[in-house]
């Protein structure tokens, strides 16, 4: 009898001990904002499909934002409520915690830990009230090989061996677009005129200093513009129509460049904006002839800013397209800025070469307009390709 | 024969043409040329109707009448050929 009682008590104890653990399995709602064609989203979805069958209490709610404007608005609302500043996808919310982007080895562990935490503890479902009645979950099993995306990007180069093409794609695009943009003659005329003025000086130090300040200030102005544009794109770039608009700009700008390049067979320079040019030249003359070097430096820097801001309209197509490509790749801030600096270096390279040659040989030289023509045609074709990709296959521009 | 050259200091194509003309002028000392800076020679620019493109090279005969106009970057070979074939004009 004693044995029977002991057994009964043991079973009772087991039941009572077990009950709380069953009750601790809280329902966990996951809200995933994703884009059709975004590789990081695909990775995150595949990961969730892999782990969620282990959590019967977890429910995945998915919201596609590239092709669904309602979901974009929903994401903005959720982002604001969560104070998350979600500038891109994937954007996942579990309880009151958000996950922007996805990287294997980091985000996956964080997501798993969060699901487990919310399973065993009560997490506030912060966005339930907003997304109630919206798209519901569809937890499909999407099993992909974890290394499939990486292995398909591997290219075997003789001598060097296997390299990941994806990791070189952004630097190559940066260098190519920066160089092509550099051949754009829009802002070049001011530098050439400045050099012609500087060559009249016998003071080499002053020549180097004023020319250097002009080039640096031009680069800095371009950097500020591109960084601001990138921030804007990161803020609104995931909106479908923004990507479409930039794609359309790329198509129109690229077609115009190709048409212009083909038509301008003899090379040569277009004569436009004579009055504006004269006004700028008069200002430059006044600045360069100033005896006070500090005032001359400040004047040159201010003029470089003014000229480049005006001429941005002429060449904003490529930087805008480039920053859109950067934004699609969800990089760290330092990487974004690093690529912008790299772009600007190659953008300014022809200016630097012309300036250095002029200062060392004391003779003016120009880069043949036939190169501007070729770069216009090549750049135009590139713009058309990128434009088409932005509109129809943005995932091909995501190299991660 | 005389060649009028229209260019501008801000035009890379004009800068490319400068040394080409310097070489030609050395090789053909009899050739008369005159350079006009686009922004500083309004009269000549208007007279010869220089409008959309630079550099422009206008070939005049002995009577000062224009018989040839070239625009853009021209190769030295082409210029030499034109000069020698029109030497007596």
- Low-confidence stretches of chain A at least 5 residues in length (pLDDT < 50)? 11-23, 134-150
- Largest interface here, residues on each chain? A-B, 27 and 22 residues
What's the N-to-C terminus distance of chain A?
Answer: 69 Å
Head-to-tail CA distance between termini of chain B: 6 Å
Shape of chain B: globular
Strand content of chain A: 5-15%
List the helices and strands and how they pair.
The complex is a heterodimer of chains A (400) and B (89).
Chain A: H1 2-23, E1 28-34, H2 39-51, E2 58-64, H3 69-82, E3 91-94, E4 97-100, H4 107-120, H5 128-131, H6 148-152, E5 154-157, E6 161-164, H7 165-182, H8 188-198, H9 204-236, H10 240-263, E7 269-270, H11 274-288, H12 293-315, H13 317-328, H14 333-361, H15 369-392
Parallel strand pairs in A: 1-2
Antiparallel strand pairs in A: 1-3, 3-4, 5-6
Helix pairs in contact in A: 7-13, 7-14, 8-9, 8-11, 8-14, 9-12, 9-13, 9-14, 10-13, 10-15, 11-12
Chain B: E1 2-7, H1 12-27, E2 32-37, H2 42-47, E3 53-54, E4 56-60, E5 66-71, H3 76-85
Structure description:
The complex is a heterodimer of chains A (400) and B (89). Chain A starts with a helix and ends in an 8-residue tail after the last helix. Chain A is built from 15 helices and 7 strands. In chain A, strand 1, helix 2 and strand 2 (58-64) form a beta-alpha-beta unit. Chain A has a 4-stranded mixed β-sheet, sandwiched between helices. A two-stranded antiparallel sheet of chain A has the order 5-6. In chain A, 36% of the residues are buried. Chain A is α+β, with helices and mostly antiparallel strands and 400 residues long. In chain A, helix 7 packs antiparallel against helix 13 and helix 10 (240-263) crosses helix 13 (317-328). With 89 residues, chain B is α+β, with helices and mostly antiparallel strands. Chain B is built from 3 helices and 5 strands; from the N terminus they run βαβαβββα. Chain B has a 4-stranded mixed β-sheet with strand order 2-1-4-5, with helices on one face. In chain B, a hairpin with a 5-residue loop joins strand 4 (56-60) and strand 5. The radius of gyration of chain B is 12 Å and the shape is globular. The mean pLDDT of chain B is 92.
